[in-house]
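Minutes, project check-in

Agenda point 3 was the complex the collaborators sent over. CS summarized: two entities, 407 residues total, and the question is how they sit relative to each other. Sequences were read into the notes so everyone works from the same version.
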Amino acid sequence: MTEAVPSYLSPTGQEIVFLLLGAVAVGSALLVVTTRQLVHAALWLVVCFGALAGGYLVLTAEFVAWVQVLIYVGAVVVLLLFGIMLTRAPIGRSADLDSGNRLVSALVAVATAVVLVIVVIDGFRTAYTPLRPGSGAAKELGASVFATWVLPFEALSVLLLAALIGAIVLSRTDIPGAPPPDRAGGNGNSPDAHTGANPPSAEDTSPSTAASPAPRTRDNAVSDPTGGNPPPDQTGGL
Amino acid sequence: MHIVYPAVVSALLFSVGVYGVLARRNTILVLMSVELMLNAVNLNLVAFDVWLGDRLHSGQVLTLFVIVIAAAEVGLGLAIVLALYRNRRTVDIDHLRDLSEPLDEPSTAPAPPNTSADHPASSPEAPADEPSSRPAPADPPAEAPSSSPTAPVRGQAGSEHPIKRGGRL
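CS then shared the predicted structure for the full assembly.
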């Protein structure tokens, strides 16, 4: 592994290509975190991920490179663009993309970079390996995944399914779960909302009928439990 | 290939991601910066897998797993961001301070004393209003005033939080 380390002053073609791709990746990453336009940040992210996929190719990890292209460039960036669209982000330049603590965060990031680069250079100065093509092909990687790493693979598929269902549940608005207490509370707070079955609003709007709010809720809770009234459940649950 | 090169590139990429997470205000940009950090980790994993020549390919397999987890994380994160946007009409992290301490920020300082002032103010008001409205119907059972002030006050306090925060944003 570390025998006969060549000099750093005469880089091979692979190293030159990798360094160029790394420079492109780091530069486009800097543009991602500094650009003033949200959509441009997503597009620079495509450039960064593409350069990283090229770096994986140079490092003979072909299958990882293509998976990177397929999932990151194909799926994740599209998902981020959908998120940008659905949150109605401003399309042009927007001045408020950075928070107020830019200088402090730049200081933290530069300190992180300095510490990491110094440690990495000090630790792996003599690490060298010749690149042999074929070790990261789909055949070897597939055999390894389905022989040694089957259990994490299956666990990961279950995790992906759980994340899928969770994203669907979080995104849909017509599931009668958490939203009804918020809407019932909003109606109960606004004074002009006439919801007769809501005990707080009935007490706010008409004090004459506020004589028996608690028996009314008990009547609702007892007499028609299938009436679908969230407010008695809410007051009872609280 | 010297291993220092991918290691340095991934360290720089990770620092850029740290800067993005700390300095960006839009939640989607923070998610993009998290993706940058995960990609830095992936580059490290691939480089060290190639260096060590692992027969099990543990580094590259773990890179595939990290990519899958990152896809799941982005999906869930964007679903959360969309739910947040539906409820609050904003995705700015600086404005989402409901779980923070109310003492240090002057913008968030007036609101929690307001709600905490509403809570003791409305709880004596509700029993004060109750006896004034009680004699007109003239059916004061002993259990009803003891149970009825607690339920409407809780309903008011629970219902005022989203409205006030939505109005403040």
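Noted in discussion: The radius of gyration of chain A is 29 Å.
Follow-up: revisit at the next meeting once the mutant set is ready.
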